[in-house]
Amino acid sequence: MIGKFLRSPDTTRDLRNVGFWVFIIVCVGAGIGMYWLSTTRTAVVREVHPGSPIPTKVISPAKTVDLGSVKSILFMGDSWFEEQASTPSVEGFMNIVAQQLGVQSKAYGFGSAGFHDPGIDNRGNFESRFLVEDSKIAPDLVLLGGGIHDVMEPSRNVYYSFASLVDAVHTRFPAAQIALIGPAPATEEMFSSLLTLDYTLRSAAADSGVVYISPLTEGWIRVENLPDYVMSVEGLPSLNDKGKEYFARKLADALRHPSE
User: Fold this and answer.
1) I need a surface site. Which of 69, 78, 109, 126 has the fewest CB within 10 A?
2) 3-state percent helix, strand, coil for the chain, nearest multiple of 5
3) Among 180, 116, 168, 185, which Cα is nearest to 142's?
4) Residue 199, CB half-sphere, CA atoms under 13 Å: how many?
């Protein structure tokens, strides 16, 4: 009886129909799975390294700063922007840059924080601290700097936090140009540990149309001149007076004559 049932035309046709629909369901499921994977991979930024571009919106990067239209600069960064370790303190490298360029300046230094890192006191990253500041000038140029404290953060977090900060700066100062000074090595260990962070910030700057200046890859601070320009302040590496003058000169030259 069972053999007769299995050999019947109706049963054979039913089994073929079942097989057909199983095949269709498997194909549809596979298609949905491939689509989900593709959208997920484009929506989540990978851990970046040199040679691995970050998938983001395409924006034509700004190549140079138009210094001819700059009458005031707002500096924003980490403890190096707090004018520490200077004699007197008002002679921080930002003020030296402003003097060399003949412009007004204002500096916001958010010690221990980064573009994503909220700092050891958890007060917030650069953007959250910037938003509560009341700028006394309407800058023609906003110079962002730092990032050393982001060295242990996932690259995608640093990337998107930087992009968010740029949006916040454009919202408050829509006419201002923006440039980014990448992280500078302050210890021998940083020469290698900052490479991925430098690449991440370079990519983020390019995608946001921001001028990028890299003290690391341009060799401003090298192993041989590190003792001449960097000193320890309360256990943290900071530019000494000679280092601030040197860093200011390099930054002013980079703004006047950006590398290709």
Assistant:
1) 69
2) 45, 15, 40
3) 180
4) 16
Residue 237 phi, psi dihedral angles, 5° rounding: -70, 130
pLDDT of residue 212: 94
Cβ atoms of residues 155 and 187 within 8 Å: no
Distance CA 128, CA 125 (A): 6
CATH of 67-256, one of 3.30.565.10, 3.30.420.10, 3.40.50.1110, 3.50.30.40: 3.40.50.1110
Helix (H, G, I), strand (E, B) or coil at 205: helix
Cβ atoms of residues 246 and 229 within 8 Å: yes
Of the candidates 92, 104, 99, 101, the one whose C-alpha atom is nearest the C-alpha of residue 139 is 104
Element at 20 (helix H, strand E): helix 9-43
Nearest to 87 by CA among 202, 200, 244: 244
Looking at residue 23, what is its pLDDT? Answer: 54
Residue 165 tokens, joined: 């900060």
End-to-end CA distance of the chain: 85
Tell me the sheet residues that pair with 238.
231
pLDDT for 211: 94
Q: Which residues touch 142 (CB under 8 Å, ≥6 apart)? A: 73, 74, 76, 169, 173, 176, 177, 178, 179
Q: For position 25, what pLDDT does the model report?
A: 56
Neighbours of 123 (CB within 10 A): 14
- Which single residue is written with the structure tokens 């484009």? 42
| Residues of the chain predicted below pLDDT 50 | 1-7, 11-12, 15, 18, 22, 26, 28, 32-53, 55-60, 85-86, 88-90, 260
Domain boundaries, the chain: 2-43, 67-256
